[in-house]
Amino acid sequence: MNPQTRKLLIQRLIAPIGVIGPDFERFGELFLDHLLSTPLEHSGLNALGFPIRRVLDSSSADGAIVAEYSAHDDYFTRGMPKAEQDLAHALSHRPNAKLVLLIAAQPERPQIVDEFLKAALAKPEMQGRSLRIWGAERIAEQLVDKFTFNDTAVEALSFYLPVLTEIWEEAARDRLFPAPDLRHRPRPAVSDEIHRRLASESCVCNREDGASGERLHCPIARIGGKLSCGSWLALSEASRVCDKLRFWLPADNRDRGSLLLARHSR
Questions:
Q1: Domain ranges in the chain?
Q2: 85: closest CA among 57, 60, 65, 64?
Q3: 88-146: per-residue pLDDT in tens?
Q4: Helices (H), the chain
Q5: Closest Cα to residue 234, out of 174, 175, 194?
Q6: Higher-confidence residue: 206 or 21?
Q7: Predicted structure pTM score
Q8: CA atoms within 13 A on the CB side of 64
């Protein structure tokens, strides 16, 4: 996945994570279940999904890893009083904890988080411990980097974060994009000219059945058979670094392009 695509996918996830709301703790439990190699025991919710007061949200069996979740809108305000409360709560229930995870639904504010971490880690009770604070952006990064092709994780988390299914489908299509023929010889001059025209012009793609064309951003039109596929694959390979997403649509459904445009314009 190229860096620009990764940034775009992360940005698409940040806002939806922030509006998960009361279900954020259950989302956080599932998120850590699929992220960590160490299983966690979750005790912060009852059988009906309601929070249990004065109980630690999640911890490993040996108490070395503990986690607290928060959907508070003001989590990252100056001084981070909710994080301070969660940290104290975690250590009071698991005094032998080595790693404390504070998971929040709101986008983090780096300067405020950095100040809080410096102050918290300087305390005597934090000696020999690690503290990580993840807001919506850091959660989104983990989802894109580690969960994009994890079908089980996507299925579990998409109930609370539906946009994750869309990203999974798009990334899967990109991954299945065919590679150019091994006999392909790059022609930079041709590729550069096509990219120049693609960036500055629209073209009309005429269908082989003679139907009226549609105005699309496609640089190659009316090339038949294997030459058409080979040209497209070569161009796509040359533009892999700058493409946001790539789709390979079967030719047996001529309406797919219109449907893709309709979805992209939303």
A1: 3-172, 178-264
A2: 57
A3: 999 999 999 999 999 999 999 999 999 999 999 999 999 999 999 999 999 999 999 99
A4: 3-18, 24-35, 81-93, 110-121, 136-142, 151-157, 163-175, 188-200, 225-238, 256-264
A5: 194
A6: 21
A7: 0.68
A8: 5
**Domain 3-172 class?**
alpha beta
Which among 82, 140, 131, 132 has a CA at the least distance from the CA of 107?
Answer: 140
Q: How far apart are CA 186 and CA 161, in angstroms?
A: 41
Q: Please give the backbone phi and psi of residue 256, each rounded to the nearest 5 degrees, phi first.
A: -60, -40
Using the structure block, give the residue that is written with the tokens 């990252």. 76
pLDDT, one tens digit per residue, over 195-232 is 677 677 655 444 444 444 444 445 444 444 444 555 65
Neighbours of 103 (CB within 10 A): 27
Cα Rg of the chain (Å, integer): 24
Q: How many CA atoms lie within 13 A of 189 on its CB side?
A: 0
DSSP output for 97-118? -SEEEEEESSPP-HHHHHHHHH
Q: How far is CA 247 from CA 12, 191, 243, in A?
A: 19, 19, 11
Nearest alpha carbon to residue 69 among 59, 79, 57: 57
